[in-house]
Amino acid sequence: MIKIIVTDDHPFIREGLKKIISQGYAGIKVIGETSSGADLMKMLEKILPDLVILDISMPDKNGLDVLKEVKTYYPRVPVLILSMHPEERFAIRVLKAGASGYLAKNSGSEELIKAIRMIVEQKKRYISPLVAEQLAQMMDSSNKSNMHEMLSDREYQVLCMIASGKETKDIASELSLSVQTIHTYRSRLKEKMKLKSNVEITRYAIQNNLID
């Protein structure tokens, strides 16, 4: 029996996942569900599943940070990231952080079950054809569309938030950092990516589908 914990702040998403898993897929069972990263960590203190399905967008803490916390304290527990964002935004980043796979929420039920079985039974990472292509592109140092992959996770967060039109003070508040720290991250990412202004940051993010 494959035992799964589902972490998503939307009740209907959790119910949908449980329904998909319970209908016609013998040997897979959701043994717990949580709505926040903090609740997930508390649950893992009591029971260790064969797989955690984790949303990348969480209310209390970014899903990427939750992933890192899980892998720090429970390195043998695989994590499948589920997200409404397209693969090009976070897939490579979460795989680098230790995720065993990345799946868009609009994926079909058969793909979800395939990912679960590949991760748990075959002990392999689930990588879609699109992510495999991204990995191949990363090996091409001349490909300028990969520049954001050079950024740290926090720099990448700041880039996306700037490109979304958020003010520095609002970014600082949301990330629980000082305004000066946000300025430092912005300076670093501009230097790494050879961008000169917030306008160029926004243009790059739009061209590479990093924001809605």
Number of strands: 5
**Can you identify the CATH class of the largest domain?**
Alpha Beta
Task: Give the termini separation.
Answer: 39 Å
Query: How many alpha or pi helices?
Result: 10
Tell the overall outline: globular
CATH homology-level superfamily of the largest domain:
Response regulator
Low-confidence stretches: none
Tell me the layout of helices and strands.
Elements: E1 2-7, H1 11-22, E2 28-34, H2 37-46, E3 51-55, H3 63-73, E4 79-83, H4 87-96, E5 101-104, H5 109-120, H6 129-138, H7 153-163, H8 168-175, H9 179-193, H10 198-207
Parallel strand pairs: 1-2, 1-3, 3-4, 4-5
Helix pairs in contact: 4-6, 7-9, 7-10, 8-9
Describe the overall structure.
With 212 residues, the protein is of the alpha/beta class. The chain folds into two domains: 2-134, Response regulator (Rossmann fold), CATH 3.40.50; 141-207, Winged helix-like DNA-binding domain superfamily/Winged helix DNA-binding domain (Arc Repressor Mutant, subunit A). 51% of the residues lie in helices and 13% in strands. The chain has ten helices and five strands, in the order βαβαβαβαβαααααα. It has a five-stranded parallel beta sheet, sandwiched between helices. Helix 7 (153-163) crosses helix 9 (179-193), helix 7 (153-163) crosses helix 10 (198-207) and helix 8 (168-175) packs across helix 9. The protein is globular, with a radius of gyration of 18 Å. 31% of the residues are buried.
